[in-house]
Amino acid sequence: MPPELFELSDQIALDPKQFIGIPIALVGAIFLSLGAQFQHRGVTKVEANTHDADKGLSVRQLMALLSRPSWVIGTLMLGLAIVFQLTSLGFSPIIVVQPLGAVALVITAILNSRISHVKLNRSSIISIVLCVGGVGLFVLVAAFTAVDKPVTTTDLIIILIVLAIVLLLFAATFVFLRKRFKAIAYIVGAGVLYGFVATLAKVVISRIFQAHFEWLTVLALAGLLAAAALGGYFVQNAYASGPPDLVIAGLTVIDPLVAVAIGIIVLGEASQAPLWANFAFLAFGLVAILGVFGLARYHPQAQR
User: Fold this and answer.
1) What tens digit of pLDDT does each residue of 236-279 get?
2) Model confidence over 61-98: pLDDT tens digits?
3) Cα→Cα distances 74→49, 81, 135, 204, 247, Å
4) From its phi and psi, is residue 108 left (phi > 0), alpha (psi between -120 and 50) or beta?
5) Torsion 267-272-274-277 (CA) sign
6) Is 211 left (phi over 0), alpha (psi -120 to 50) or beta?
7) How far is the C-alpha of 294 from the C-alpha of 290, rounded, in Å?
8) How many CB atoms lie within 10 A of CB 90?
9) What is the largest CA-CA distance in the chain?
């Protein structure tokens, strides 16, 4: 076998122990799907009782969610999903396990259709296929062309600066334009923020295991919590204005695309990838995002 093929196989071959992260991530996807369904039910009941979520959920409404058993159960399930996701990251690379959350989209679409008695139309099914297929092909190309690289101090500083800018932009946009926010706006915002959460979680876990816990790690942890808090608020507002499978579509598509994009642009994980791979990243990413917007437009519950 030529030396180049040996080098390529070394880059893409997983250690047997790394396969453990795959079933763990799949269990997390199941909890993510169930948690989304329960949380959506709690949010819609609170929104129906107050009728004033068009400007974003208020503090009173957020507190009312704590009294809804369905929302509390959903939150606990989402907490378990996060635990399984972080555990899977401890075994496998982020590029392998992060996109497996797309399984939750299929489960959520089936569950929501049965529970709400709303049959998915042809356009919605095509949109779901575009979401899952686009993410799957995006990751497949990345797995064969990307190289796992450690996050340097400079890389982490760049990520934190970009995150600070993103947080300010989303916060300012929400404050001044929240009356015009629709489900898709909340979903895109949450997906982008959770992409940073996944990346920073991997960084913080690695630094803790390496006993490299200093001020920059603390700052990364603070950024992670800030992004998770604002992203979580956006998710609850998305539940109030859209079906749960649309919310999960945004999170399981935009989240991994952002996380992988950070790896490609900031960390240089695709620096050795051929030119065709870069075009493939762009094409498959656009296909997945097109599926999200298609679901937002053609989903029967979104149309209502």
Assistant:
1) 888 777 777 777 777 777 887 787 778 777 777 666 778 888 78
2) 777 777 788 888 888 988 888 888 878 877 766 666 76
3) 19, 10, 25, 26, 14
4) alpha
5) negative
6) left
7) 6
8) 14
9) 68
